Structure formats: C-alpha cells, structure tokens
Amino acid sequence: MQNKLGVMQGRLLPKYQGRYQAFPIEDWQDEFKIAKIFDLDLIEFILDFNDFEDNPLLNNDGIDLIKNLEKESGVSVKTICADYFMEAPLHSDNSSVANNSVRVLESLILAASRLEATEIIIPCVDQSSLETSEAKDRFVHKVSKFFPLIEKENINLALETDLPPKSFVKLLNELKSDNITVNYDIGNSASLGFDTDEELDAYGDRISDIHIKDRVLNGGPVFLGEGDADFEKFFNKLKSFDYKGPFIMQAYRDEEGVEIFKKQLSWVKQFLN
C-alpha cells in the first residue's frame, strides 16, 4: 500500500487571526481545492480549543459537508489533530476540565468514525506535557476508558509526547490497546535533541502518523532542511518498518502559506519518492 501525503489544515491558507496553527473557520472549505491542485491525498483536520463548538467535525451537517468536499476534490480527511487537548488536557488536575475533555474526545471519536478517519492525534506537549507521574497516571486512567470505543470503531489515538524514548515506551506499555499508537513529529524530536535511531528502535512499529517539520535544537520551526532534523537518517531508518500511515506536511509557514508550502513540498519529495 502506498503511503498517502497530506497537509496540516490551514497551511495552504493565510494565517487565521494571525495564529501559527489554527482551524480556519472562515475559509476552511477552500483548502480542499488548493490541496487538489498540489495533488495531495489528505488534509489533517484540526480541532481547536478556541471556538471548538463551531468546528464542522462536531455536528452532523458539518460532517456531511466535509464528506461532500472529499468527493468533489478527491482529498480525504483520515487524520485529526486534536489541539483542543493542549489547552484542556485529559489529564488536567481540574476535574471539570478533564471531564469536559472526556466528552469532547468521545464526540470526536464518533465523528471520526462517520468520516472513516483512522487517527486522532492527542498532543501531550508544551502546556499538556506529561511532566509528572501523577499526570501520567491520570492520563492512563482517562484514556483507558476509551479502549472499547476506539477498538469497536477501529480508530487510533496517536500520541505525541515530549517524553524521551524509554519513558514514552513505558507509557505505551501501560496503555494496553493496539489502537494506542504514536504520532511522530520529525521536527519536534530534533528540537528536543532526541536520537532518531533510539526513538524508532523503541516504538517505530507503533507509529501510525508522521508530521513532516524541521526545527532547530531547543528552538522553533524553520524551512525544511535548514534545522537540526536529519531527514536522510530518519527516512532510511523508517525503511526498517512496514510503515503504511500518512505523511502530513506540518512544515514552517509564513503569513500566506501557499508559496512556502510549494517550495518545501518540492524539497521533501526527494525522500518521499
């Protein structure tokens, strides 16, 4: 099976409200047409914390509209980046926040099922980082409750964390479901100074979604190839695994998005081909 190539939602449009990554409420439909021009297979949808009630993922009419746009463009929504949980973590020590997030995740899983999506990316980084053993315990407790549902609907919860490889594997081993997988972000790993070989040896067989990005060590995103991510090493190592998931372009963006995306897409194709 050939890997699908996609783009993070909003990267083909001007910044929404000046934000680097956000659900573009006003013109999200237009991105399907642009993605088709670039011959992309996928758009990875975003569920933001801001105005999340207005996201088409969370209502039936919105899902029907997405499905119609998929048919018209040939561009599918198979993965959802749930940035909502960066602001309102499932493992929050505020029980009201955590319980609301549980309800949101349940709705999102059912929405993903209707869309025939396969991945929901749960970011546990920055303000939602699993920094303490208590936070990890709360996270395991909350996520474990979803095992019957995600296994029934065959949807993966793909975790992205800033944990070093051994700690991440320990967490994965506590989450005893084949539908708990890994979202691997090339740039974020480079920024954290992690070793690609060590990471993939630890959990390469559990990666189900890959974000293509470049960052400098301990710093922010840069144009692909100008940071500390070793793309050649990563893609050579990935050949050791039977990876069938998508590659999602989440690369550096400017105010407009399209032209810088086009240049970086051309650059990365040397590895994807």
Describe the overall structure.
With 273 residues, the protein is an alpha/beta fold. The chain has one domain: TIM Barrel, CATH 3.20.20.150. Helices cover 42% and strands 14% of the residues. It has 11 helices and 8 strands. The protein has an 8-stranded parallel beta barrel with strand order 1-2-3-4-5-6-7-8. It is globular and about 45 Å long. The mean pLDDT is 96.
H/E element sequence:
EHEHEHHEHHEHEHHEHEH
CATH class: Alpha Beta
Compute the CA-based radius of gyration: 17 Å
What is the name of the CATH topology? Answer: TIM Barrel
Instruction: Please report the distance between the alpha carbons of the first and last residues.
Output: 14 Å
Helix/strand class? alpha/beta
The count of strands amounts to 8
CATH architecture: Alpha-Beta Barrel
- Spatial order of the strands forming the largest sheet: 1-2-3-4-5-6-7-8
Number of domains: 1
Provide a brief overview of the structure.
This protein has 273 residues and is of the alpha/beta class. The chain has helices at residues 30-37, 60-73, 84-87, 95-115, 133-144, 147-153, 165-174, 186-192, 196-203, 231-238, 258-272; strands at 5-8, 42-46, 79-81, 119-124, 156-161, 180-185, 207-212, 247-249.
